[in-house]
């Protein structure tokens, strides 16, 4: 218990990061690039708050040295402001003080309210479903069926989540899988680190090996002025290679913990952490499921299937996904003949259980609010671009990988990173005799590797969901990050010579 009390809460960690970001605004010169956005029927060039309307033509983009095609803006692929190459300029300092630090997590909550509501609605949905007893019955049945073959669950589920991240950008929606997989993995003899490695780690690895992710690969390729299919075969190869490395790493750790519980990093650093999700006893696991339980389970899994289909096919996002779980919760309550008062109280109780996660998500975005308020994000990108210009192609690519690892600490959004950096770094590619596809790859690899530990992404909310510390995760993941860094660096050096 003493050890647990000494481990900083994720919100404490994020507040320290916010303070450090505020201090950086006093040390790093302020500056910005001009930005271009599409607002039908015109382009809008933002020059320090002054907006200039420009015609929506390729000639306009060429005059601004933006390589992206017009269609990338008009069809909605690029929605965020794009940095204009060569437009960086210094601004008067806007150092962030005590008031800005206090307001930062609140601004972060404003900016992430859609994600926060999604998480709270998932909490309510899971609580309502748990109240039916169907989840426990289903997990007992699955555990009995997979007894002796639990390792295959790790392999299959990790691969599917990695595929989801690499193909369509699965990220926040993976929060919904924790209440299902945590009890299942604990019943199989694993520790709480395993579900985080499978769910968060699997989707994060998908960022590194994205081959068709519209929020990273496609946006970055368009911003760089190349087709997203340029380099597709190489990214598919990286998907297979990185998935094999990651799944093997997670599987070996899980089996080690199962064979020797004292080898658990959670046990070593956090002590006897209690699962926040209802555990179940395997006793009676072989009993057949009732027809009502089967119907409830069908509704439960249809909710996930509908969410995934909606994102991939109908381009849904958090509003529609949240609505799916709200409707599913109501349907489950009807099938269970739950009174309206019991339903509402149960639903709210489930949302309350994830309030700490909601605050962590908002606080993480508060770091970005500080950096943007101090106008130093663009300065960091500009100075980095000056550092790598003129280097030999192989050295240039390794440095790009390192820089994107560093950028990810400040900009955790894959789409945000793409539109801020790709027009600038893509412009350096020709001078360094580097294919544009490798610039995109360096961005994917850097964000994918550093995303495993950056506090401004989804890591801290994921750890908070299961109740383990950043130290346990760090001890688990740093050897893997070192392996992936070497593999990615070699991949990039080979890529520029093909």
Write up this protein:
The model is unreliable at 1-5 (pLDDT under 50). It is globular, with a radius of gyration of 23 Å. It has 498 residues and is mainly alpha-helical. It has 23 helices and 6 strands. The longest helix has 28 residues, at 232-259. It has 2 domains: 1-30 and 105-498, no CATH class; 34-87, no CATH class. A 4-stranded antiparallel beta sheet has the order 4-3-2-5. Helix 11 packs antiparallel against helix 21 (436-450). It has helices at 2-6, 10-27, 58-63, 70-74, 98-111, 113-132, 134-145, 150-168, 178-187, 193-208, 214-224, 232-259, 265-270, 291-313, 318-335, 340-352, 355-373, 377-388, 393-410, 414-431, 436-450, 459-466, 470-495; strands at 31-32, 35-39, 42-47, 50-54, 82-83, 89-90.
* Percent helix: 55-70%
Question: In terms of quaternary structure, what is this?
Answer: single chain
What's the N-to-C terminus distance?
A: 55 Å
Regions with little confidence, pLDDT below 50 for 5+ residues: 1-5
Radius of gyration: 23 Å
Q: Could you report the average pLDDT, rounded to the nearest whole number?
A: 84
The largest β sheet comes out as: 4 strands, antiparallel
């Amino acid at each position: 218990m003493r050890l647990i009390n000494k481990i900083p809460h994720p919100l404490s960690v994020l507040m320290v990061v916010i303070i450090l970001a505020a201090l950086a605004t006093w040390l790093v010169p302020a500056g910005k690039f001009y930005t271009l956005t599409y607002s039908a029927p015109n382009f809008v060039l933002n020059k320090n708050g002054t907006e200039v309307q420009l015609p929506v033509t390729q000639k306009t983009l060429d005059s601004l040295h933006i390589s992206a095609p017009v269609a990338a803006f008009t069809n909605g692929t690029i929605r965020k402001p794009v940095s204009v190459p060569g437009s960086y300029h210094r601004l008067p300092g806007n150092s962030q003080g005590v008031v800005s630090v206090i307001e930062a997590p609140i601004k972060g909550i404003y900016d992430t309210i859609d994600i926060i509501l999604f998480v709270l609605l998932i909490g309510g949905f899971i609580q309502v479903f748990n109240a039916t007893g169907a989840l426990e019955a289903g997990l007992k049945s699955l555990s009995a069926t997979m007894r002796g073959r639990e390792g295959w669950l790790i392999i299959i589920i990790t691969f599917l989540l990695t595929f989801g991240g690499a193909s369509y950008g699965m990220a926040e929606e993976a929060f919904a899988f924790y209440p299902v997989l945590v009890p299942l993995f604990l019943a199989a003899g694993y520790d709480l680190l395993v579900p985080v490695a499978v769910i968060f780690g699997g989707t994060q690895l998908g960022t590194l090996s994205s081959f068709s992710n519209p929020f990273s690969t496609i946006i970055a390729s368009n911003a760089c002025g190349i087709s997203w299919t340029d380099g597709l075969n190489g990214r598919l190869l990286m998907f297979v290679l990185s998935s094999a490395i990651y799944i093997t790493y997670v599987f070996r750790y899980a089996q080690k913990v199962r064979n020797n519980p004292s080898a658990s990093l959670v046990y070593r650093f956090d002590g006897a952490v209690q699962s926040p999700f209802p555990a179940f006893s395997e006793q009676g696991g072989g009993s057949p499921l009732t027809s009502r339980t089967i119907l409830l389970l069908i509704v439960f899994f249809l909710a996930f299937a509908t969410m995934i289909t909606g994102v991939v096919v109908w381009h849904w996002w958090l509003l529609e996904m949240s609505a799916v779980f709200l409707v599913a919760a109501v349907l489950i309550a009807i099938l269970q003949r739950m009174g309206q008062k019991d339903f509402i109280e149960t639903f709210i109780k489930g949302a309350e259980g994830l309030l700490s996660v909601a605050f962590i998500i908002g606080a993480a975005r508060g770091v970005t609010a500080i950096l943007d308020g101090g106008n130093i994000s663009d300065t960091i990108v500009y100075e980095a671009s000056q550092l790598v210009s003129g280097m030999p192609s192989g050295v240039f690519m390794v440095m790009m990988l390192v820089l994107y690892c560093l950028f990810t600490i400040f900009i955790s959004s894959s789409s945000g990173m793409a539109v801020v950096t790709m027009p600038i770094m893509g412009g350096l590619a020709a001078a360094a005799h580097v294919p544009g596809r490798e610039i995109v790859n360096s961005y994917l690899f850097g964000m994918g590797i550093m995303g495993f530990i950056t506090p401004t992404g989804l890591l801290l909310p994921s750890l908070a969901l299961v109740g383990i510390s950043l130290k346990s995760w760090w001890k688990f993941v740093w050897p893997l990050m070192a392996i992936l860094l070497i593999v990615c660096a070699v991949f990039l050096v080979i890529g520029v010579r093909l």
